[in-house]
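WARN no homologs supplied; continuing
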Amino acid sequence: MEKRHLTNTAQIFIPLQLTSYIYRFYNFKTSITFVLVLISILFMNTLLAQQTQPMLKGESGYTFQGFENDPLKTRIYTLSNGLKVYLSINKNEPRVYCNIAVKAGSKYDPAETTGLAHYLEHMMFKGTNKIATKNWEDEKVLLNQIADLYELHRKTDNDKEKKNIYQKIDSISYKAAQYAIPNEYDKMISTLGAKGTNAYTSNERTVYINDIPSNELDKFLKIEAERFKTLVLRLFHTELETVYEEFNRSEDNDYRKSWKSINEGLYPNHPFGKQTTIGEGEHLKNPSMYNIHQYFNTYYRPNNCAIVLVGDLDYDKTIALVDEHFGDWKAAEIPQFTYAEEPPIEEPKLFNNYGSQAEHLYIGWRFDGAQSKQTILMQLAMGILQNGQAGLFDLNLTKQQKVLQLNAFDIVYHDYSSLVVYAVPRQGQSLNDLNELILKEVEKLSTGNFEEWLLPAIINDYEFKQLKQFEANRNRAAFLVDQFVWEVDYNQLINSLQQMQKITKADIMDFAQKHLNSNNYVAAFKHVGEDPNIHKVDKPAITAVPINRNEKSDFFEEFEQISSMRLTPEFLDFKNDIQHEKLGDIPLYKIHNNNNASFALYYIFEMGKNHNKDLPLAFNYLPFLGTEKYSAEEISKTFFKLGVELKVSSSKEKSYVYIKGLKHSFNEGLALLEHLLAGVKADSNAYVNLVDGILKHRNDNKLNKDFLLRQGLVSYAKYGAKSPLTDIIDSEELEKKDLEILINLIHNLKKHPHKVFYYGNLPIELLKNEMTPYYNEEVSESLPQPVIYPELETSKNQVYFTHYDQKQVELMLIAKGQPFNKNVVPYIQIFNEYFGAGLSSIVFQEIREAKALAYSAYAYQNIPDNANQSHYTMGYIGTQTDKLQEAIDAMLGLLNNMPKANDQFEAAKLAALKRIESDRITKANVFWTWERNKKRGIDYDYRADLYEAIQKMSFEDLEGFFNTYIKAQEYTFLVIGDKTKLEFDVLNQLGEVTELNLEQICGY
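OK structure emitted
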């Protein structure tokens, strides 16, 4: 996944995601994580028409809607221009999470210019007639000329004439770029200490995201008000190149193909099914700046938008600030969206797609939209099918290992909704057979072939999830955006659990008989094979535009003069912040949960695959096993009835067994966990199926380009042929494994040194008393010595290449640096922000903004997880084969000659300092931060050192770091792409080229 506003094109549904939407991020922080998951649809699904809510008045005189028994304490204001403002207070940290939502998704795209809403999202980060311009009056003249030329280009069918027009567009665009200041919006937002600056476009909405320190709210709103009132399409053709790249990448994504088919089948007459969010290739090649402006002027109006602010705020002061900055935004009449009602689906609609990735299956059913009672019935039906522990899919398919992977999720829109199942077949299992297995379980809903206790247990599970999800500001904001877009009564949403409790088993049966059966579904079968329908958008050549990185607009100059109070950072004191007791020889740690009545209990073992390759195998085996007293299915049911979730995991260095749930179920959940660990018994059939699944998963990995590049090739570059990735149990040994070895590993887990961590509200003495009966044996086993995988020196330039059938080529470069050194971490942090990982970084500006050489490009130095590991300089380029040479040259040029931009350096420092000042590590994260620090040999809150060092840092210091640790390095280049299309002369210039086969990089 990738980073930033230019993505989130169409909604993508990745197999492992159980949620309705995901954010796609386009640059480096792929592990962020950040993905940003929208809240579970459990709150969304109600019904009925909007109810009249009494208006209240705050101290500032603004009227608002407030709601009883609202856990979010939301106030909904409506300004005189129609702008909705949602405010929700959460004082956990001095930050405010902001979503600005526009009812302007791709369903509003004109049929002749699809992709328009998404492309407009990109352009919203390019500035206004005040932001990001040196001279608007002169720039405007050239931008108007470019817009006229695009209209000529769009209206002619003569290829030669189109090419000539585009050359004129390119020439004038270069002149216009002399006045542009790329990424100025990002620079300003960054100086506030913002995090997660992003946006996404989906079918019914475009949402702009920021997470800012609460003391910077005034300045933040000033920027946002400016950019939402005025649209300027500067740097249009370089950004269009980016969208071309995004389109081409989507053509290599088999999951997109499946999702497109599902939508076409479910919504044949609605824009959901007739056009994609990213748009048609021909439309992207023939854009209209006029149409984009018209779209903006039509839909980006206050009476079609909502500002959602969640966090450390004051209701009265905040609404006054929003009104001050947005109150003069002019309202306009919004065209009403109309659509013809879809005819019933009366027989299965089947689609077959092809591509390089592993085969999979999607099945979907269509229902009415968010305001219909069908959505809450759909949500409960989905819970009966799959809840992670005791659903029909969980017990009858996943637990029985009849499928390799199976996920159900729901999609809710204003107009329609759907329930979708994603599945991966086992070895030798056909997609047709997989389809039939799933449909047989779905049919049990109609016949009532599920237990009575399941429905109330699902509602209890949703209650627990609600508690956990509303702890995060981003989930609260997403929930409020949903309410705005769906136009569902807020009281109905926050009381959805009570609505669920009124649903009976008979209601579910009746609903399934009518709407969820084996006659009215759509299925997309994804096969491995060549896709004859790939459509690649050819991109015209462009001239690189100037960056002007040392320039500032008048708006930015004035913005910098606005003072704001600085926050005082707060650092952790682990000795006092974490309670400590003993369970015999075992340390017991506790963080008090002040937020709700939930708990989490972890058994943490300082050993993993590197210590014993059987350990991950045993942990993967455990969920399919029972005891003398309970079968595996009965254990899952019992945990679910209690409202407790059991999870196990084992990585290279650590293993975890943990339970989570509501406070009242702690004792019973703990007893069941201990019973399982002590009494688990072998099941030979379960093991045979487990091995079969492992081998199928390994084969599927060979078809996964992200796995091959980011894990396989990276691991090979770091360690060589024998690595933590490739040093695994081979298939023959797996099949002959003595099962008692695995069972004894589980039985004896607690005889090894480990630690216990509890997050909840039991007093630590009471917690100790509850757990002591399970700690009556002394630790008798020592930790096994781990296998050490020496890191290879990067002594020369070399290239490792792996063939993969795709349109794009992806390249990573990697160089081993110094052993972990905490003293260089402050320089790494600022280097990454300034140089290669931030939205306004040098690499982003040069490769993406100026030259449009890659859809995604970044470079950074990592901070290793462990004190015994090294720092690595890493970079990435994802581009088309014909641009590879130029993109590599640009990247290596920057890595050997870091441009100097003092203002940008100071902005990077300021951003880092403000984030530290406003970040608060709270709740269970206090313990996990301590754990991470200890792995690096640090037993205190290292942010204090970072804060002090960054304050003192000069550009000369950063330059010294660059010259010592980055410049003039040798690199291992990792390349994945289609060897029939690659120009190997380009790779040969980098170093000796070695083609690695799949067995070499995967270990099997």
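Residues 136-155 form the longest helix (20 residues).
OK
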